């Protein structure tokens, strides 16, 4: 007898209660426009005035009344103008060091944009683990990241996998309950293995008197290992509001102490959810992530230092790249190029626990690949209001179709009502977003292959995808474990 597997899904897509394909603003414009036109026709005996009113209504609807791929025409034009302006002003290129285009740089390599303003504050959690909290003074936010070695699902019983998924879901639900938390990100970073640590270990254990044939075999195995291995690392970042964590608004030290008390519970919950043994990250860890992201080849140097038990002094204030250049559809890096695509809509219907496996696995089309999932914490009172609004929006949309309701319409009503009922019973509402960043060699063939693979990986998971041609720098940094949540930092990352 085949055991029936658990399915997941029924996530709700927020909708604007507009008429047909119109947004809510578009519906309001249409209603107001028709009223004005009727008034003009009845009170003003002037064809030109009436024609002008109709033209204004059509233009207003064109620019604000409907969305394509989640954006109105007005928003698209505004974004294009902003991109053009940034390019013209030189704000799409970021250069540090001796040839820096930054004011008062003094030859250093600061991180770009708002990250340059951040400070690291050291703390020690309840387990005695040191950590460095990233402080965003302009936003009054703190972010702490865990480095995780995911357990994976290979050779595991399905019952155990189901339990880990349930525990992971329970951790997500706590984000909306814990005071001060505004959101979290889960990032899976994958790349081909370097084989450096094993190579150093083999060379260190080799007997000087070993037969030459045995030495050659071991050398061949060490050389070939990177072609058959991969590195997969998980990062979990939790972000808190400073005001909710400190006794006074400006007391950052109090906030760090309070965060330190909470980290063990997050680590335990994540471990139960399959994250292995989460360890809070310190300054060297964070700097290494940044350096490897900008130039994947530096991973070899870091692995070599670890293999030789050599410590390296790494400074957060100098963790930035030598240059970044945002181009249409990609971001040029010191060690190649990168593109980030975003999930426009989650998969339709239900999925199994391994639905994202292909996306998360290492892929030969990339030097490095990161998949980032963002969870927004919504307080219980706001969650209930949003759920009720969702039901009303679905009812409004369904009411327009009357006798010709489609399966999609019926499903929308069913999911909205289920959402409302579950939240009324105490469930949490956690909106989520997803980004995928691929870094590749900066040549035409590698670029073509990587871009096609990015889209293929997400669309094969039944997601609707959007390529963001003018926000590549911002999206690239959001897929790093630094606490840059999309709803808080959706801006030009080069702007300070």
- What would the principal axes of the Cα set say about the shape? globular
- Uncertain segments: none
Tell me the domain tally: 2
Count the DSSP helices.
15
Please state the structural category: alpha+beta
Percentage of helical residues?
Answer: 40-55%
Main pleated-sheet profile: 13 strands, antiparallel
**Strand residue content:** 15-25%
Distance between the termini: 61 Å
Mean of residue pLDDT? 80
Overall radius of gyration: 26 Å
Using DSSP, what is the number of strands? 17
Secondary structure topology:
Blueprint (H helix, E strand, L loop, with lengths): L7 E2 L14 H20 L3 H19 L1 E2 L2 E2 H16 L4 E3 L23 E6 L5 E7 L4 E8 L9 H17 L6 E12 L3 H10 L6 H13 L5 E12 L10 H24 L3 E2 L2 H12 L3 H10 L15 E5 L2 E4 L2 E10 L4 E2 L5 H4 L7 E9 L3 H22 L5 H18 L7 E9 L3 H16 L4 E4 L4 H7 L7 H4 L7
Antiparallel strand pairs: 1-14, 2-3, 4-11, 5-6, 6-7, 7-9, 7-10, 8-9, 8-15, 11-12, 12-13, 13-16, 13-17, 15-16
Helix pairs in contact: 1-2, 4-7, 5-6, 5-9, 11-12
Relevant terms:
two-stranded antiparallel sheet, 496 residues, 13-stranded antiparallel β-sheet, 2 domains, alpha+beta, 15 helices
Please characterize this protein's 3D structure.
The chain is an alpha+beta fold. The chain has two domains: 8-89, no CATH class; 100-193 and 229-377 and 430-489, no CATH class. The chain is 43% helix and 20% strand. The chain contains 15 helices and 17 strands. The protein has helices spanning 24-43, 47-65, 73-88, 158-174, 196-205, 212-224, 252-275, 283-294, 298-307, 357-360, 380-401, 407-424, 444-459, 472-478, 486-489, and strands at 8-9, 67-68, 71-72, 93-95, 119-124, 130-136, 141-148, 181-192, 230-241, 279-280, 323-327, 330-333, 336-345, 350-351, 368-376, 432-440, 464-467. The strands form three sheets. Strands 4, 5, 6, 7, 8, 9, 10, 11, 12, 13, 15, 16 and 17 form a 13-stranded antiparallel sheet that branches. A two-stranded antiparallel ribbon has the order 1-14. Strand 2 and strand 3 form a beta hairpin. Helix 5 packs parallel to helix 9. It is globular and about 105 Å long. The model has no long low-confidence stretch (mean pLDDT 80).
């Amino acid at each position: 007898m085949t055991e029936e597997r658990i399915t997941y899904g029924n996530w709700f897509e927020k909708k604007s209660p507009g008429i047909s394909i119109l947004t809510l603003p578009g519906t309001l414009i249409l209603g107001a426009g028709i009223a004005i036109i009727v008034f003009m026709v009845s009170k003003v005996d002037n064809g030109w005035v009436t024609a002008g009113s109709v033209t204004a209504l059509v233009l207003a609807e064109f620019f604000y009344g409907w969305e394509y791929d989640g954006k109105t025409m007005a928003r698209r034009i505004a974004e294009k103008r902003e991109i053009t302006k940034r390019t013209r002003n030189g704000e799409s290129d970021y250069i540090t060091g001796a040839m820096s285009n930054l004011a008062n740089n003094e030859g250093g390599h600061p991180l770009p944009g708002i990250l340059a303003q951040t400070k690291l504050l050291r703390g020690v959690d309840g387990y005695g683990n040191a950590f460095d909290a990233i402080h965003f003074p302009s936003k009054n936010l703190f972010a702490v990241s865990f480095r995780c070695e995911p357990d994976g699902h290979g050779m595991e019983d399905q019952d155990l996998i189901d339990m880990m998924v349930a525990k992971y879901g329970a951790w997500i639900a706590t984000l909306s309950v814990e005071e001060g938390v505004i959101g979290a990100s889960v990032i899976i970073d994958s790349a081909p293995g370097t084989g450096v640590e094993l190579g150093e270990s083999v060379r260190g254990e080799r007997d000087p008197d070993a037969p030459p044939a045995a030495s050659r075999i071991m050398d061949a195995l060490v050389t070939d290992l990177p072609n058959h291995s991969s590195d997969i690392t998980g990062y979990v970042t939790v972000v808190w509001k400073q005001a909710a964590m400190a006794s006074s608004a400006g007391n950052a030290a109090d906030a760090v102490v309070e965060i330190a008390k909470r980290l063990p519970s997050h680590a335990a919950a994540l471990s139960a959810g399959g994250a292995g043994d989460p360890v809070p990250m310190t300054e060297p860890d964070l700097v290494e992530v940044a350096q490897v992201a900008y130039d994947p080849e530096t991973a070899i140097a870091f692995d070599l230092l670890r293999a030789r038990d050599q410590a390296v002094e790494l400074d957060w204030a100098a963790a930035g790249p030598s240059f970044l250049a945002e181009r249409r559809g990609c971001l040029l890096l010191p060690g190649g190029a990168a593109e980030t695509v975003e999930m426009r809509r989650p998969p339709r219907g239900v999925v199994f626990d391994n639905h994202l496996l292909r996306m998360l696995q290492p892929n030969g089309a990339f030097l490095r690949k990161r998949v980032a999932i963002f969870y927004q914490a919504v307080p219980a009172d706001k969650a209930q209001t949003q759920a009720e609004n969702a039901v009303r929006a679905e009812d409004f949309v369904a009411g327009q179709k009357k006798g010709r309701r489609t399966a999609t319409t019926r499903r929308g009503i069913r999911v909205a009502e289920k959402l409302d009922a579950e939240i009324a019973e105490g469930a949490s509402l956690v909106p989520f977003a997803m980004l995928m960043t691929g870094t590749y060699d900066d040549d035409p063939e590698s670029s073509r292959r990587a871009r096609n693979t990015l889209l293929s990986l997400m669309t094969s998971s039944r997601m609707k995808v959007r390529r963001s041609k003018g926000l590549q720098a911002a999206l690239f940094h959001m897929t790093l474990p630094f606490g840059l949540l999309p709803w808080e930092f959706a801006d030009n990352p080069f702007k300070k």
